[in-house]
Amino acid sequence: MHADSLIENSCFAGLPTALGHGSGVVAAERTGLGIARIVARKGQGARLAELFESSFGIEPPHGPRRAGRGDVAIAGVGRETWIATCDGAGNGFAESLRRALGDCASVSDQSDAHAILRLTGPRVRAALAKLTPIDIHPRSFPVNSVAQTLCGYVNVTLWRLEDAVQGDPVFEIWAAGSFAASLHQAISHCAAEFGFVRQAP
Questions:
Q1: Tens digits of per-residue pLDDT, 153-174?
Q2: Among 4, 20, 30, 144, fewest CB within 10 Å belongs to which?
Q3: pLDDT digits 0-9 by tens, 73-114
Q4: Fold equal for 3-31+112-199 and 34-109
């Protein structure tokens, strides 16, 4: 798809791409991501885990943790409930999961339901600390941690990825698509003192 079309279809179209001076916090919209919510059916949690690992080489984590391999990742968001993602897979990912997991799980496609920003930069942790009530210090929120929390007044899912090559922490923050503008405003305004930049998708 042409870059101009991606920008026009962005959840964040028309919102400022920079605030303040510098690039202490750098945001990038995640597009084309296949997203599915997986809920194990009664008594099928262990079998679901076996099938998922057999298909994708990843053991679904217990508790609020994320695990990934290649383009696929899965995060625990509740009791025998996960969010799975696949880069570039779009709506077809949920169907592939239904085939892989059979009658062990209920799978719902959420690929078009979320506004997602990947955040990095030398001051990203300082900006997020002003917005979220959880402790995101590296000792309390290490790589692959997942939390369902608030960002300003918006309900979000926050997870931490591997650090960037230069050592800056990397986070992804998810909100319902209808709250895209509120999410963007909260992050950009809190990051403005450090310099906020949003890259084109």
A1: 899 999 999 999 989 999 999 9
A2: 4
A3: 999 998 899 999 999 888 899 999 999 999 999 999 998 889
A4: no
Q: What is the DSSP string of 102-159?
A: GGGEEEEE-TTSEEEEEEESTTHHHHHHTT-SS--STTTS-TTBEEEEEETTEEEEEE
Cα separations in angstroms, 151 against 105, 182, 187: 30, 9, 8
Tell me the residue type at 107: V
Helix (H, G, I), strand (E, B) or coil at 180: helix
Instruction: Report, at the CATH architecture level, how domain 34-109 is classified.
Output: 2-Layer Sandwich (3.30)
Instruction: Say which CATH superfamily domain 3-31+112-199 falls into.
Output: Probable tRNA modification gtpase trme; domain 1 (3.30.1360.120)
Q: Which of 100, 94, 62 lies closest to 79 in space, CA to CA?
A: 62
How do the domains of the chain map onto residue ranges? 3-31+112-199, 34-109
By the 8 A CB rule, do 172 and 162 touch?
no
The rounded mean pLDDT for the chain is 90
The tokens of 9 are what? 């279809």
Model confidence pTM above 0.70? yes
Q: CA-CA distances (angstroms) from residue 18 to 27, 126, 139, 168?
A: 10, 18, 31, 19
Q: Residue 28, Cβ neighbours under 10 Å: how many?
A: 16
Counting Cβ atoms within 10 Å, is residue 15 exposed (0-12), middle (13-18) or buried (19+)? middle
